[in-house]
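General statements about sequence and structure are easier to judge against a single worked case. No coordinates are needed to read the tokens, only the vocabulary itself. The sequence in question and its structure tokens are set out directly beneath this paragraph.
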Amino acid sequence: MTDLTGKTAIVTGGAKGIGEAIVRRFAADGATVIIADRDAENGEKLAAELDHVFFHPCDVGREEEVRAVLAFADQKTGRIDIIVNDAASQLNKPLLETTTAEFERVMNINLTGTFLFLRDGAQYMIDHGIKGAFVNFSSTFAVVGSPGYLAYHASKGAVSSMTRAAAIALLPHGIKVNAVAPGTTDTPGLHDGARDTGDEAKGMASFLALQPMGRFGKPEEIANVVRFLAGPESDYLCGTTLMADGGYTIV
């Protein structure tokens, strides 16, 4: 696989979990990486640990903060080649208990945040003649249902659809747009979800029982898929959503 030397990547939600694994993988492959995240503590710690990695605070649902991250990346390297839209919010609530404000907050982070980085990031690439790549984060919940997480389901289904539309819109500019749909991955967020059930151990056991491979995904495994989608090895893919889910959606 070709390296990323000379490339600049922005990873939203890069302070921990899958995002952290992506930051580490890109940095190891030679890229300069900008972590865009609300989690300043973990983001700054990770940036201090790795060479050519920088942190910039960002609430992805706020237009002015998205533009500030893009400006920061331009200031650091004068280019933006890859944008990974990993930042996300979950809400474990059934339909009848979800408030309008809760629904809108999830959509703002998961969908509007992705849109803002797509639109403004693509404009930057076009203005600078860069044939860049976007990797959006969908989910297995884009194609399956559950009694909870309604807002999350809605947002991730929309991300997959938006990925297809953006891929066609940006194709004439040589900009690649694809998405990854992770399965149940062993991250801090997974444990948060298990705690939301009222008993973390039982919650984790119930999640594990649904996995065809008998295990959870590893953040590094999802990072490997993102790395593939970000690099030239995937240049014939256009608007696809790759299911990296250990078989969860096929059984």
